[in-house]
Amino acid sequence: MKKITTALFTILTVSVFAQEGWTLSSGKVEKYTGIVTANGRIGILPEDKPFATRSVILNNVYDKEAPLGVSKILLGMNFANLDMTIDGELITEENISDFQQTLNMKTAGFTTSFKFKDKAEITYTVYALRNIQYTGYIDVKVIPTKSISLKMTGKISTPEEYQEPVSTFRVLRDLETTMPILQTVAKSRFGRHIVGTSATFIWHAINSTREHQRPELIHEKVSDYENYLSFEKELKKGEVYEFAWTGAECSTQDFEDPQSESERFVIFNLLTPRDALLKQHKELWEDLWQGDIEIEGNLEDQLDIRLALYHLYAFSRGDSDLSIAPMGLSSQNYNGHIFWDTELWMFPPLLLLNQDISRSLVNYRSDRLGKAREKAINFGYKGAMFPWESDDTGEESTPAWALTGTFEHHITADVAIAFWNYYRVTKNMDWLRERGYPLIKAVADYWVSRAVKNDDGSYSIKNVVGANEFAPNVDDNAFTNGSAITALQFAVKAAETVGETADPSWADVASKIKLYKFPDGTTMEHSTYDGDIIKQADVNLLSYPLHVIDDEETIRKDLKYYEPKLSPEGPAMGQSVFAVLYARLGDAKEAYRLFKRSYEPNKRPPFGALSETATGEYPYFATGAGGMLQVVLFGFGGLDITDDGIVQKDPILPREWKSLTIKGVGPDNKTYRID
């Protein structure tokens, strides 16, 4: 009887979690990769130690990486580290038990809990507040199991690369309201920005603004790089004690006076009741999750898919006109620059599920159209030429030694394709006239000037690095040519839509750009390709998402030929493309195999953060998240972006799933369910 009861309990537990599918939990593990809490402006990356945070990343705030280097996103001042001392003993990972961490994707809260000896149970949750976008909030609960003396220390730790830090503590006053503020202000590594960071404790059970009602605060400036604020409290056994630590970080990228602005954000959090503050944060995340994907019958896949979508939402916001770097706000990898990763991989899922965020992504590019026009002129072309790596300026920010920055030109077509797709989904004519068409037109003019006419009347695009970056400086790269064809064709449609006359050369060049074939009809990766290992599924992108190659025979030939050519050292997106195509061909088994291969080898313990490659250690790879989500939406879900908007064609379900439900699709928030 006992065995039956245990089995039944296990089944019920799994069922409950399958129904929920919102949380990822782990105890202490040997290898650890944390999951960032982010709000599109700042990212807070926790560690597997009590009250420890690895980093704070600031979106779109750059300084040079080195005196002769390119720009690099800033590692922010870390305001999210705390120290807790009980009865004079500092809590560390060595003297605690029952350590547990849980990411709640629904509320974007990262909770850590543990026991300190037989003296106390401690829980705290880290939020990057969606509503107060330059701030973080750490909500702490202490339950003494014995009477204890508690000391809590909040810190602002400034990375050594900052210049001239000034660390202070002040108690600001307005009539009877007192506001204690710990603060550090410093210049970024080469002085391009001033960064101001403020922080304070919040006590929920009392009026924290009255100085005589809160614990005495002790300021300790260890150095200008280490600024501490502490309080002490005697707690009786069973006396639940709750408080919070909040910090705000601002820079001259976004504010004329980042010091004062960071103080105001902290004061707002200090004087706003916790329930109201967190309620608004959670409501904003509830709005985001109106666009969601539900898998019935496979809890692991549900959690993997939702974690991917969580990261795309966490790394972006609809009111920012900012884009998403390959690693989002989890690290400084790739210098926090913006690549084709956004337009080709992350943008399509967001375009289906959240048009506000997708508008920010395209607006990021139109805001930098002027610099793209300058680049085209500087390289002897017309129109607009977008950088391979972009930062806040819109100029080329790829390191000069990397050939991609000088020769990987398909990015210019990728941007225009994303723009037309945004219009196709939203039908926002005002946006198309003001932002969309001017950019699409400039891109079309670029490709006409970039293409070279051959003796037979065809056109070639020469000397490029394609999506397959293992083959630099080749002629007629398949994806570069296919994306140029598509961008030119879209330009003709965009002109007609806004009532303009399309330049006749757009359609002429598009119809005559060369694509090379092997004798059996398989598409060649470039004009001299002879079977080398490839980094990306370059050719296969012509079938999805470009629709340049649409006949089933060629699609199958290209799939069969290029899947074995894909390097295990390359990023996982190639497998995603293969999976989408097999799903659209009606082969659910092959599609699911490649879907799992597109990300599963890249998962890192304990929560499943995606690394860029199966052998690499650089999570979280938001580009990979975009790829796997496209398999679900555009492969199994059968969704497609057309001139008529979002349509569904021949969805197909892997046998591992009972159903697939896609919610909040398009401006009408449609729901698609496949059983």
Automatic annotation (TrEMBL):
Q: What is the lineage of its organism?
A: Bacteria, Pseudomonadati, Bacteroidota, Flavobacteriia, Flavobacteriales
Which GO molecular function entries does the Swiss-Prot or TrEMBL record give?
hydrolase activity, hydrolyzing O-glycosyl compounds
- Is the keyword ATP-binding assigned to this protein? no
Question: Can you supply a Gene Ontology BP term from the record?
Answer: carbohydrate metabolic process
Question: Would you say which domain of life the source belongs to?
Answer: Bacteria
Species per Swiss-Prot/TrEMBL record:
Poritiphilus flavus
The Glycoside hydrolase family 65 N-terminal domain is annotated at: 37-132
Is Ribonucleoprotein set as a keyword in this record?
no
Which segments constitute the Glycoside hydrolase family 65 central catalytic domain?
306-502, 527-599
- The signal peptide, as residue positions, is 1-18
Q: Which InterPro entries match?
A: 6-hairpin_glycosidase_sf, 6hp_glycosidase-like_sf, GH65_N, Glyco_hydro_65_M, Glyco_hydro_65_N
User: What are the protein's UniProt keywords?
Assistant: Hydrolase, Signal
> Which Pfam family, any one of them, does this sequence belong to?
Glyco_hydro_65m
- What is the name of the protein in this document? Glycoside hydrolase family 65 protein
